[in-house]
Design a protein that fits this description.
The chain is about 20% helix and about 25% strand. It has about 475 residues and is α/β, with parallel strands linked by helices. It has 3 domains: about 1-105, Immunoglobulin-like, CATH 2.60.40.10; about 110-370, Rossmann fold; about 380-480, no CATH class. The strands form 5 sheets. Strands 1, 3, 4, 6, 7, 8, 9, 10, 11, 12 and 13 form an 11-stranded mixed sheet that branches. A 5-stranded mixed sheet has the order 23-21-17-18-24, with no helix packed on it. A hairpin with a 4-residue loop joins strand 17 (about 415) and strand 18 (about 420-425). Helix 4 (about 180-195) packs across helix 9 (about 355-370) and helix 7 packs parallel to helix 8 (about 320-330). The longest helix is centred in the N-terminal third of the chain and has 22 residues, at about 1-25. Mean pLDDT is about 95; it is low at about 10-20.
Amino acid sequence: MRKHNLKQLFVIGFLLTIQSIYAEVKLPAIVSSDMVLQRNTTVVLWGWADANEDITIDASWLKEKLNIKADKNGDWRLEVITTNSKDAQTIKITSKESNITLNNILFGEVWLCSGQSNMRQTLAGYNGQPTFGSVLATANSNNPNLRLFTVERKGSKAPLKDVNEYKAWQQASPDNVLNFSAIAYFFGNQLQKILDVPVGMIHTSWGGSKVEAWISKDMITNYQTVNLDNVDIANRTNHIPTALFNAMINPLIPYTIKGALWYQGESNKNDPKGYKTLFPAMVKDWRSKWAIGDFPFYFVQIAPFNYGGNDKFEEKENSAFIREVQLQCADIIPNSGVAITMDLGEQYCIHPAKKKEVADRLLFNALNKTYGYKTIDFAGPEFDSKETKDGGLILKFKNAEGGLYAFNGLQGFEIAGADKVFYPAEAKIINGRNVFVKSDKVLNPIEVRYAWRNWVSGTLFDTSILPASSFRTDNWDDATHYKE
């Protein structure tokens, strides 16, 4: 009898403990001390508690406390207005079972950074693959107004409410920046100094990932059937449709952001037509889920790289086709911009060391388009039109208000006639604004291609030293190139 009573007491005590734990307010990982909340706007605080639990929010910048009741599932969500104050703030969250205090909160600019390995590359670089400027950047990284949050790699078959593995909000310092995304750090550090406001950078990327993995099931089922019931989520997780969205993006929603940075495309290079559909769909998907409008979305065109051969001309073998699609996506996606990297690639390393230059070009987009710095140039020359003259073709360009520039002459141009065979061509800048292309082997030229190879080093710039993308004036699918 005594043993029976003890057993009952143990069970009752265990159940009371579980009830108490469940009743405590729980916050998502990204809502914590040291976070940066988007300034001067409406942000969302959310979390979980017991069903119908009464919760009080006491924010230091608000005159009155806010009260909310969790729903029947224990979910709660509250919109809060932030200010432009640069002072550190606190948030106290209380309920019958909880007393949470979040300290050292700042209002500022919050950017989400995602993609594959070139976005994931840290200041420390990869084995045998450096990030240029990392030592000096690390030495100068102590900045309490720059905050960093990292989502670790994780996949899921269904949308998760919270991230499972992460590095919580940290103030940038030599102790942590080496293992943070180099592009995200360089972008955030410069933005913080230029705007003189706090900046929060959220990094969530996975090397080798395909764009399909970053799209929700709601969106991607418009384009392909997705059934993960019998899929091994641990096998090539970064290629599984919806898997990374579920685990690495969904848990961050609805944390209010200013915009997003994206560097991905290498894993989709063999299907440029598909990418032209799926990438804009992903951006639309994220914007719909966040429900804060068409927030800025700036992305990087993949850099030239050998990809196992440089004499490829066919669509599935030549990364120039997906670079073309990425350039087109800047026109397809509202409130977006592209950073061109034709001069930053490395022939035998898919992870170029010049990450600060990439971050700079993303920053130029943001400064001009998002923050109103209209004198900051952000776009390199873009092919506009052509005309036949003197046995060659004259090419005209947009986004070259100050003219064109080449360090040591132009290289990488090819020209073709009606037979669709491209021959190496001579090219030169004329009148400081146009390019004249000609080959003695093509008597009646009609089309030109520039840097239309896997590996090439860009030579055409504007006077802001922003490079032109690889481009073609034709739309041929069956063109070839001359071989001796």
